Each structure stands twice: as structure tokens, then as C-alpha cells.
Amino acid sequence: MTSLVLLRHGESTANAGDLFAGHLDVPLTPAGVVEAGAAAEELAGWCPDVVHSSPLVRAAETAAIVGSRLTPDVVVEYQAALVERHYGALQGLRRADARARFGAEAVERWRRSPAGVPPGGESLEMLHERLRPYWREVLLPLLESGRRVLVVAHGNSLRMLLAHVSGLEIREAIGAEVPTAVPLRPAVRLPAR
């Protein structure tokens, strides 16, 4: 039985508007609420012992919907480390507007290069390092003790967590598909102690 499920939040108003959301606290759309319900249906029969969520509302709403349907008395634990990557000057911009303002090549480098840092923002390497203590001190001990954990977060934070969980290089994890509200059951690679 799977002990870890990673779940990106359902469609948010920023997703629907094609915006760089980052740390913006935007809610789910009605379609995102439906997506979260569908994720719960897909996971029916799997009961997490622990539900961790980013505190941003789009993830918190998704965690509440999914967690309550899988384990009615579960308490969602908010983990600040799971917050999405900070997009700096890109945050709140439509993707097309960001490309027009900064150039398509620069925006793509900032988005998909491990060391690419948008002005005032956070690189994927920085996000990976931000997640290291959560992986080693919080999630890993739960998995080693046999607990079933649902982690609800964001596209980039889940990609970088996947790097830790599955022992992937950052570049490999960057290419991982993390669609909204589709449960991912990664291979967990426990480090030698």
C-alpha cells in the first residue's frame, strides 16, 4: 500500500488567469473544487494518517476537501516549507505579460533552470534547499515509521520535494508532470542511516 501521496492543489484563480502565482494567496475556482473532489474519489479507500499542506489557501482548500473525504477526523497540518516558489517580479503577472516585459528566453530560464532566479524571487535550487529540513526532519520520520502521508502543495514545491523523496537530481525533477489535483504516488527512496 502506498505510504505517500503528493497532490497539487486544484485549479486556482491564478491558474485560470494564466498568472505566475508564487506566494500570492489565491483561492480555488469552482472547477478546482470539482478537481479536488475527483482526487478524493481517485484515492477512495486510502486513508492517510497525516495530511500536510501548504498554508496558501489554494492548497489548504484542496487539503480540506480531500482529507475530510478520505479520513473524516483528520487534522490538516500546515507546513510553511511547502509554500510555492517565490516568483519575485513575475508574481501576479500573466505569463504573456511577463514574456513581453522580461523576454521569453529570460522567463523560461528563470522558470526551468535550477539556478535561474527571477528578480526578487527564488530559484529552484533555493526551493530545493528550503524543502530539505521538511523532508529530513518531518516527512522522512513519518514514512520510516510506516505512516501514510498526504502532502498537498504546489507544482514547483512538489517537484523539488519529489527530488528529495525519490533521490532525483533537480534537473530530473524539473521535468516531472505535476497536473492540478492528480494524485502522484512516487517511489520513496529512503536514505541509508
From TrEMBL:
Pathway: Carbohydrate degradation; glycolysis; pyruvate from D-glyceraldehyde 3-phosphate: step 3/5. It holds the Pfam family His_Phos_1. It comes from the Bacteria. GO terms for biological process: glycolytic process. It catalyses: (2R)-2-phosphoglycerate = (2R)-3-phosphoglycerate. Gene3D superfamilies: Phosphoglycerate mutase-like. SMART domains: PGAM. The record marks 154 as: Transition state stabilizer. GO terms for molecular function: phosphoglycerate mutase activity. The active site is at residues 9, 84. Its EC number is 5.4.2.11. Keywords: Glycolysis, Isomerase. Substrate binds at residues 8-15, 58, 84-87, 111-112, 155-156. Catalyzes the interconversion of 2-phosphoglycerate and 3-phosphoglycerate. Belongs to the phosphoglycerate mutase family. BPG-dependent PGAM subfamily. This is 2,3-bisphosphoglycerate-dependent phosphoglycerate mutase.
